[in-house]
Structure formats: structure tokens, C-alpha cells
Amino acid sequence: GIQVEQSPPDLILQEGANSTLRCNFSDSVNNLQWFHQNPWGQLINLFYIPSGTKQNGRLSATTVATERYSLLYISSSQTTDSGVYFCAVESAGTASKLTFGTGTRLQVTL
Amino acid sequence: NAGVTQTPKFRVLKTGQSMTLLCAQDMNHEYMYWYRQDPGMGLRLIHYSVGEGTTAKGEVPDGYNVSRLKKQNFLLGLESAAPSQTSVYFCASGRSGSLRGYTFGSGTRLTVV
Question: Could you tell me which residues come within 8 angstroms of residue A91 by beta carbon, excluding any fewer than 6 positions away?
Fold first, then answer.
């Protein structure tokens, strides 16, 4: 099956810093989604981004499907950004089943 | 609008006991899914359903059964719980043909002792 790798596995930032999280996938995908899992375990949709670039406030994401990677940018980080960020992909013809990466654990400190 | 509701939120089982986790969605989604999340790992798909009365195996189906008798409900059963099934279980629902609106429940933390 498709493999999804995320880097870095862990990241510690001071409040106000910027960061880039990367997601590589091993095969062509229909769709790609970024999730944030907050410290209480809740999974929150960030971006549905099979290709191109999207922005939502301080967060933006870019997917280059032909090169099989996606990037999540966090600017001016805040403590509320802490948690685990997951990339998940949907392969062609798979009934919207998602394959998740192992995540990037982000800690934003004061 | 509650979205996706999972019950119970926490449960402790003894090895060999059985239990059923309930997932209910009120968004009229066709597709529903059960995932498990183990420490330091992403979510892995256990079983899924593309419509009422249909179920299919995911990546890690062994030891679990599912049923979808009503469109809004998706049940996950453990017939004889094992310590290896200690995990956090997430249910999700979505529309056919699109990840837009893919919604997760808040999770069920299950411990098997």
C-alpha cells in the first residue's frame, strides 16, 4: 500500500516563530488532507488540498502532486498551535479511505 | 448539529470480555469508518462502510467486527478483547467521492487489562 512519511517527527518552537512541516507519499493520490490533533485528542480538519496552495489565516499548505509531497506552513506560531499534525492521503478508487502519516508533534513555548 | 458522536468515551475491559462501540452521525453521510490510534502512530483503518448494510475490511481488521444496519450508525464490536486492542478508537464519516466534510468523532479510549 501507499506509504506516507512526515518530517520532522518532533518540533519545538518559541512563540512567534515560523515552521514548515513536510509530507511525502509514495504513489499517486486522489486527495490529501492535513489534520491537527489538539492536546485533548480531537482531530480537526485543516486543509483539503490534493494540489495547489491554500491559506487560512496563519496556516497555509502546498501540495505538489507530481512530485508526491505536501508542505504545511505555520507562521507566527502560538501556544494553541501545539499538538500533532497529520497528513493523510486517499488513493485512487479507495472509497475515501485515508492512509495517515505518523505525524509531527509540535510544541510551542512562551 | 452534533456531527459524529462516539460512545462511550472511556472504557476498561478485562481480557476476554466483549463490548460494542457506537458511532452515530447526523450529516446523512454515506461513508463511515473506524480507525485506531496507537501511541506515536497515525491512525490505521480497521473497517469501513460505503452505505447502509455494507461493510469492508481495512488495514487492521483482525479481532473486530462491524455492522451498519442504519445509515446513521456504525458499530464496532470486540468479541474477545485482548491487551493488544488497547488503543484510542476514532470514528469518521464522509460523503461519497469526496474528502470535503470528512468528520471525526472525539474518540473512545479503550484499555484492556
Answer: A1, A2, A27, A28, A29, A30, A97, A99
Nearest chain A residue (CA) to B36: A100
The total number of residues written for chain B in this structure: 113
Which segments in chain A show pLDDT lower than 50?
none
- Of A45, A97, A102, which is closest to B48 when you measure between CB atoms? A97
Best of A21, A43, A85, A104 to substitute, by most chain B Cβ atoms within 10 angstroms, is A43
Question: What is the pLDDT, as a whole number, of residue B97?
Answer: 66
Strand-pairing partners, residue B14, are none
Minimum CA–CA partner of B50 in chain A:
A95
Given a contact cutoff of 8 angstroms between Cβ atoms, the answer to whether B32 and B48 are in contact is yes
- State residue B39's pLDDT score: 86
